Amino acid sequence: MQTSKEDERLILDSIEQFLERDVVPHAMELEHNDTWPAEIVAKMSELGLFGSIIEEQYGGLGLSCSTYAKIVERVSRVWMSLSGIFNSHLIMSSCVQRYGTEEQKKKWLPKFASGEMRGGIALTEPNCGTDLQAIRTRATKDGDGYRINGTKTWISNGIYGHCFAVLTKTDPDADPRHRGITLFLVEKGDGFKHSRKLEKLGYKGIDSAELLFEDCYVPKENIIGGIEGQGFKQIMGGLELGRINVAARGVGVAQASLDEAVKYAQQRSTFGKPIAEHQAIQLNVADMVTRTEAARLLTYRAADSYDKGERCDMEAGMAKLFSTEAALKNSMDSMRVHGGYGYSKEFPVERFYRDAPLLTIGEGTNELQRIIIARQLFARNPI
């Protein structure tokens, strides 16, 4: 999908207006209180953010990944948690759009696009994170459907979400293991509930929860694509979009950290002059801006590859790795520019410092990204 330059400009302008009007005045308080931003989420639904990359024929905006990445970057400059609320939801939507049957697309995508039904992906388990082939959640046949039993943890939108793409084992004896993994769409109800909200260092506001499945009945029509054993491939495809989202979040946090440092350096004076005139500060912000621009270009390149339908796990991995490390470093450097005020809750820098570490972990750790990058590099350059 491609978005025209004019359409992209109008969309980004509307996002900027929404952020300035509805998010900036409230983000600090909501974040510090770890409050679910119900009114902001309603505005996001009105803007169509929950249908950003869903095709227009199913009620979405049909935006390109490149435009979507720019939206995520802008949202993350103001409050990163909001981007997570629609990211997890859109990974689920992407799995249905890319791999679902036509009947599944017609049934689910319009509800996802409108925000009437929101959700996310349920992958991680208490004893399984990066190694998704080691999941223990089981889906066993029961008549014309399946019974799901297991526990998922650290699930974004876990409390306020309605529906989730749940990764399960339908054949625990399969060899290789990924052939026994199936992805189901599961609505909350009998046998499926959230157990507790998980407290976090940062990434406040968005609900991260533990999900419990106890003999949860799911009809076979809810297998994404309709065939068992395709779930691992499907979720890996969905995570390409997720990693581009996390990369764009990294760019947003890196840019916000830089913006605050540049502003503060011109306001704060020491030894008779603004600290912006001290060489040590100049060296610091020069590295920050270079790091941010490099991260942005890597992210845009990955998004462009995704839009072209090319395999982009290497590109998304590089963007995710570099951008999130840039966010982490910029948040620390911005705190140092601010000195003691950077450690105060009166300034947003401490929030960037708490949010950034999550980005190096979510959607596959940066250690995993390095492995993906290296393997793809060798695969693309055989001798």
Account of the 3D structure:
Strand 8 and strand 9 form a beta hairpin. The longest helix has 37 residues. The chain is an alpha+beta fold and 383 residues long. It has ten helices and nine strands. It is globular, with a radius of gyration of 21 Å.
Summarize the structure.
The protein is α+β, with helices and mostly antiparallel strands and 383 residues long.
How are the SSEs ordered, and which strands pair?
Layout: H1 5-33, H2 38-47, H3 65-78, H4 80-99, H5 102-114, E1 119-122, E2 138-142, E3 145-156, E4 163-169, E5 181-187, E6 192-197, E7 208-219, H6 231-267, E8 269-270, E9 273-274, H7 279-307, H8 313-338, H9 349-359, H10 366-380
Parallel strand pairs: 1-4
Antiparallel strand pairs: 2-3, 3-7, 4-5, 6-7, 8-9
Helix pairs in contact: 1-3, 3-4, 3-6, 3-7, 4-5, 4-6, 6-7, 6-8, 6-9, 7-8, 8-9, 8-10
Please summarize the sheet with the most strands.
4 strands, antiparallel
Strand content: 5-15%
Distance between the termini: 35 Å
Give the neighbour order of strands across the main sheet: 2-3-7-6
Along the chain, the helix and strand elements come as HHHHHEEEEEEEHEEHHHH
Query: What percentage of residues falls in helices of 4 or more residues?
Result: 40-55%
Count of distinct strands = 9
Q: Using the alpha-carbon principal axes, give the shape.
A: globular
Q: Quickly count the helices.
A: 10
Q: Helix/strand-derived class? A: alpha+beta
Radius of gyration: 21 Å
Report the average pLDDT across residues.
95
Low-confidence stretches: none
